[in-house]
Amino acid sequence: MSGTVYVDGAGSGRETIYGAWSVIVTRPGTGDAVLDIVHAETGALLGASNQAAELTAAIMGLRWMLANGASCEMVSDSAYVVNGLNERWYERWERNGWRASKGGDVANRELWETLIGLWRALGGPTRRIKARHVRGHGRGNDAPVDVVGNHVADRAADGAAALAMEIDAEAGVTGEGAV
Fold first, then answer.
1. Collapsed DSSP state (helix, strand, coil) of residue 145
2. Domain 2-171 is classified in which CATH homologous superfamily?
3. How far is the CA of 147 from the CAs of 42, 136, 172, in angstroms?
4. What percent of the chain has pLDDT over 90?
5. Could you read off the pLDDT of 110-133 as tens digits, one per residue?
6. Could you tell me which residues come within 8 angstroms of residue 72 by beta carbon, excluding any fewer than 6 positions away?
7. Structural contact between residues 64 and 5, judged by C-beta atoms closer than 8 angstroms
8. By the 8 A CB rule, do 161 and 90 touch?
9. Pairing with 117, which of 70, 130, 131, 136 sits 20 to 30 Å away (CA)?
10. What Rg value do the Cα atoms of the chain yield, rounded?
11. At a CB cut-off of 8 Å and minimum separation 6, what does 121 contact?
């Protein structure tokens, strides 16, 4: 199958940070502003930064592609994820013992290693798999279908984070052990 995989991460909460991610898969050629969604999934993470949620969304999107033999374009509003893959930041990190350009450890190393493994398994970046950045929340000159796809993924991730917070609040659980 070919198509587009929209991925997004989100974070919410004041005392306890809830990260969440979403994957929305659409068929190709579905029109200018209409999405033909063939797969959707979300998840929540406790104590995750927004960057970790964005990486997790990309990981889950690539896992779906690998499991389904899909050659898709992954679209994300995270320049961190898209540039990290397309500009191959990971090659420099690997050569430098996972040290960032400013000398510290690369943040979210474990997530990056998982993402890179999936990216390589799918042959990225090639014609079979690409990562493309879209501006979040309809800013810029992105194609209308990509604005809608990103918005759907954004809302799904926000909803997963809000639901995790609500479930824990109803159960009276906060901090350690939440979600």
1. helix
2. Ribonuclease H-like superfamily/Ribonuclease H (3.30.420.10)
3. 19, 8, 37
4. 50
5. 999 999 999 999 987 776 678 999
6. 1, 2, 3, 4, 5, 25, 65, 129
7. yes
8. no
9. 136
10. 16
11. 66
